[in-house]
Structure formats: structure tokens, C-alpha cells
Specification:
The chain has about 130 residues and is mainly α. The chain contains 6 helices and no strands. The longest helix has about 40 residues, at about 1-40. It is elongated.
Length: about 130
């Protein structure tokens, strides 16, 4: 009875780690996909250099994780790699900070030009990238 209990607890911990990592991974991927289109524009990179540099760091890390994941065909092994959960948590913190800075930047533009309040963030970013 004791032998199987230890095995069940080990598998339970592994499944919780898998679930937590997958949640962080999906959140990171969602934010990364949205911000990637924004920070590939050279004008936005010039206007928000600190955020562009932070995004480049997350981008590099995310692509490296995806490369390593492609080499591992077992999802459990790929998602329970030591340090992966913490890496995604850190990336999500950085992406959240970048998003807040981007919102602040857009708000300053809207305050300078009130007609921008009628535009979505994506439309405003398109205009600013072309300016």
C-alpha cells in the first residue's frame, strides 16, 4: 500500500506541475502573439525602446522553449522540464509590464489628440506606426 501511495503522490505532483506550466504557457503565448505584431514595427521600437528590448528578451526565450519542445515529443516531459514554470511566470510578468507601458503610451497619445479616443488600440497603433 505504501509503495503505490508514493507513486500516486509523485504522479499527482507531476500532473499539477504540468497543469500550472500549461496555464502559464498559454497565457504567455497569447500575450506574445499580440505583442509580437506590435514590436516588429520599427517605429514602435523607436518610440518604446525599453519595452522593445524587454520584448526581444521574452521573444528569444519563448522561441528557445518552442525549439526545445519540438525536439521532445512527450508533452509531460516537455512541460515538466525543471525551471520552465518559473521561466513562463517571469515572462508573463515582463509581458504584463510591457502591456501596461504600451497602454500608458497610447493614453498619452490620446490625451494629446482627443479624437484618438474613438479608435481601438490596434487602430491607433497602426496610425502611430505609419506616422
Amino acid at each position: 500500500m505504501v509503495g503505490i501511495r508514493n507513486e500516486v503522490e509523485r504522479v499527482d505532483r507531476q500532473l499539477h506541475l504540468f497543469s500550472d506550466t500549461l496555464d502559464e504557457w498559454l497565457a504567455c503565448q497569447k500575450d506574445w502573439m499580440y505583442l509580437k505584431t506590435i514590436f516588429t514595427a520599427p517605429d514602435i521600437q523607436r518610440q518604446l525602446p525599453h519595452e522593445a528590448k524587454a520584448f526581444a528578451s521574452v521573444d528569444k526565450q519563448f522561441k528557445e522553449v518552442m525549439r526545445r519542445t519540438r525536439e521532445r515529443t512527450n508533452a509531460m516531459q516537455a512541460a515538466t522540464t525543471p525551471g520552465l514554470l518559473e521561466a513562463f511566470q517571469k515572462s508573463n510578468e515582463v509581458l504584463e509590464t510591457i502591456s501596461k507601458s504600451l497602454e500608458d503610451y497610447l493614453e498619452t497619445k490620446r490625451m494629446a489628440f482627443p479624437r484618438f479616443y474613438f479608435l481601438s488600440n490596434d487602430e491607433l497603433l497602426d496610425i502611430l506606426a505609419q506616422a
